[in-house]
């Protein structure tokens, strides 16, 4: 034992190891005990929890089986389906299985009591109640079924369900109690662990204090002595106490004592060493100079790297081609220490940038880029250097001979083609091979940057193309991402959202762009919900949504389509389509149905009513005449309505034809007024003719229809009577006709819609006035076809004025104008194809008297040959020719199929009433025999004048409207 104590006294390390080992043993034993205790608690709780959860699972299975049996029993009694009956007994087996499993897992008195009650109920329910109820139900004894339910059946089920619920609650409470117990035990264990840690820390502090007393005090004394020695003070050190120790401190004290003795002995030796150290110091100063030189080299390298970094940053900091090129040439010149340089792209524009060069020098370089030294770059695709004498223009004020070193560098693309060249000049000295290799590496970086810029420009061009395409689309297109942020819009969408430019909407959040749209529309929250359901909820099946913009008077339909990429939804494309016209058409259709129903039924009711009276009653002759007159008037009214509908249909389909001739507008208006006078006795008609030039080129019947509609409206909409004034006057080169009444007038807001189909002013004064709303629409189309226009001014309660403006035609009358007309007629050549000699002679005499040159021919084939030879200005053609080698129809077809002759006007002169066929085959006019010969002269003259007005480009009169 003594030997062991000596063993530990001789070493501080061994003493420390013993203390630390003891401490670790205590710590490990305590920590292990606490860990085992904690593990035991957890294991015990998990075991009990598993038992309770197992019983809970079986209890739930029992409950499910019984509930399913209850449901199947009710289903069988309600619907008499056999599968319900079979399911009852399957659930009986499931319930019995679950009861057996619960019995194996039972551990408490509550478990046993519940099992006993459950088995009793199962025996009663499946053994007694269900069989009796099924038997009674199958025998049709529903009274017994009800009796079984009322006499304990329902009560027993409810009691079992209560017991089931109570048992499950007890299991839950038992699990909660076990969990609470686990928490309490864990709290105790945590408290014990805290106490254990506190104890361990106390022991550790105690050990530290022991070691400090045993080691720190003697070491402190040694340190004080060492400090005195360092200060060259007299030292008296008592080493008896320290040297009595057998450990390292004792050994250290003995060694220190011996050291003091040897210090003095070796002082002279130290002085010698001092001189040697001075010599070493000189050597270190030399090494320091070398290090300073190395530092300068490193700083130069750092500066070079900084330039390289600036060069790389210049390549990547911008996608603007010109900025990048300017950055390249500037930073390359700095890296090379070149005095000037240039870079040129080998594209069509020769995009370039220069450093230290004049504009003239750059222009000269670009002019001769494919000549001289540069061609070597395109052929060898390798860099090269050149030393040359400085020219006089480069020397400046220097007089001695100087040299400049040029370096030529190609920038190669991925296809190994030269996409740019760099040329730099340096006056200070040549370029080394190492520098050349470095610059080649830099050109590769330049190539990558240029390729990146090219890709960016291509993508920008593609983006701009897509944007231009979107801007040409009439609908408003709007693409938003999954968060509702605006990504792509076109100009129509910008206008719809009332923004100034596309840039305002790019990147705008949902709240920013949706607010403006919702505030404009009358849909409000409904539109907002529609947008949110598609953007944020991904509702892809929503139907298109229609909303109105009251301020713009527009109706917009919006529909949405999701945009996917690689199966992932990227966002939604909204298309806002302006359906205002379609909406108005639908409204007009509704108004049309309503109007037509009213306007047609009213006269039909009168016709049917009076017809029935005449068929069923004996009426006096005067009464019959009155009724027939009424029926006739209503039938005319129906005819007028139907004609209006047909006129509108023909105008919209482009099939309306006009037989335009030179007509006197005054006679047309007077005839219309004479016709309209019979419809009123309270109106006075006045015609004010303020010009003698009243001739227009037009269709007499259609012009009569225009003024009939206008004057009829003037009568209808001045129900109190008054003056209706028709004023005819000139305004410039237009002939104007005003139709003025003193009636109800038209509201200002209704005037823009007045000439729309089916539009009628809606107010109480007009409800009793009938009409389809087509009259003014027909007026506008007819006037438009005559190259005119119709306008209206009105004042409520004072009347309205409709103004029709048509091109004015001045016919030549007497003097020089008459001679000019005669000259035109004399120059005009007409061929008459007619087999009746007497009629041919009459027509020839009429045309010659009118100043035309005339030739006659009887046969069809000869007529075709003569027309091909002489190419007349007009042809008068009979259909039924005496010679049957070719009829008039054959002649007409042959002329219209010949491109050289198709433009010649053809007037058919025939006894056959086949006007439609003739006009369809290309005839320009159709005269039915007999007719006045002067009518033929007038027709030909009108054609020639019309041809002159249209610059010798003849348009058939009957097709001008088309």
TrEMBL record:
Residue span(s) of domain Histidine kinase: 595-810
GO CC, any one term: plasma membrane
Reactions accelerated catalytically: ATP + protein L-histidine = ADP + protein N-phospho-L-histidine
Domain HAMP: 213-268
Molecular function terms, GO-annotated: ATP binding; phosphorelay sensor kinase activity
Modification 4-aspartylphosphate, positions: 878
Protein name: histidine kinase
